[in-house]
Amino acid sequence: MSRSRSATHSGLRTRGAAQIAASAPHPLLADALAGKPPELAHLDALCHHLGVVQFANGDTRDLDSGFCVDDNARALIVAVDVLDLDSKSARAHRIGAAALDLLERTQLPDGGFHNMLDAQGERIEENGLSDAASGRALWALGITVARSNDESWRSRAGALLKGSWNCARRLKTFRPQAYALLGAAAAAKASPQAKRVADELSAMLLDAYERAATPQWPWWEPNLTWGNARLPEAMLRAAGVADAGQRLAACGLRTLEFLASITQEDGVFVPIGNDGWYEQGRKRARHDQQPIEAAGMVDAWLAAAERTRDDRYWPRALEAFAWFLGVNSERLIVADLQTGGCRDGLGLGWRNRNMGAESTLSYLQAHCAIARFARARAARGA
After folding, report:
1. 20 to 30 A Cα–Cα from 276, which one of 22, 116, 199, 348?
2. Domain region containing 314
3. Mind listing the pLDDT tens digit for each residue in 196-214?
4. Cα–Cα distance measured from residue 69 to residue 339, given in angstroms and rounded to the nearest whole number
């Protein structure tokens, strides 16, 4: 590492993200704050003609790990967003095309998606069915219909969605429902059917929240586990299109603030760790922190900012994004800004050496979200 780069990293580790946001573009945040897309070299290396490969050994893809709908749905979202930022990105075109092809191959007759494929692209039956994978597929397809600048991608995604809305209604658990709601909310302006699904899913989640929440624990469940921020984000996104808009927005903001009261400590994002999660009334897990949590929190704060037009949520999103860049409990950088790769987790004083698809895509999604929002702020003179 060069001396100047080392000094830059040290400075980022010791400054709060809110200070970074307020003072000027910090060198490690400059590209995102300038509205520039992230580097896709590592994701491109993970991409095979059959789709994005699940895992990596270090920075080398592990083709034997096969493929999954979860990761390729995320890859399609990243490709759409990078192309929104740079319409000439050949890597984004290649990655998005492979991911969309995989979603077409894995859709089932009932509208769900078969999640796991082996290295040859054949279905692995014992690990095939997943509500979360179907929910993420709907999310990605809704984003593609709403935001892609490729007419062919929009048409193909729309065709898949038409066959999958009934699947959305069959999802039984909260996070898959939230993923599907994100897709339905995104596509609602282009599709009356998406609007109906957004109304139905948001009503289900709102009812579940109102039955479970207490003043001390305003949440859907008596624990915080994985993908937490996608729940408040889904409520906030749905608030812009669903009938119960004000109630959904209130729910989204309340639950987001509750989650932040636990995970954002003095300007540092400390997500719930995989090493034990957080059950109400017990000690929260702080380690085995995962990139998907930071990405979700970035999106949730930006959803709050877009819904309320309140700029105080922007620095909170930057705090969550800065987790990737060393403003975290371990002061370790997990994103490789030269390649766009991301480490697979953060433990007590260490970071995972591997850079698999889920982690890499989490960083790339977060970078794109910050870049797109920064462009929108600049366009309105904020």
Report:
1. 116
2. 3-379
3. 999 999 999 999 999 999 9
4. 23
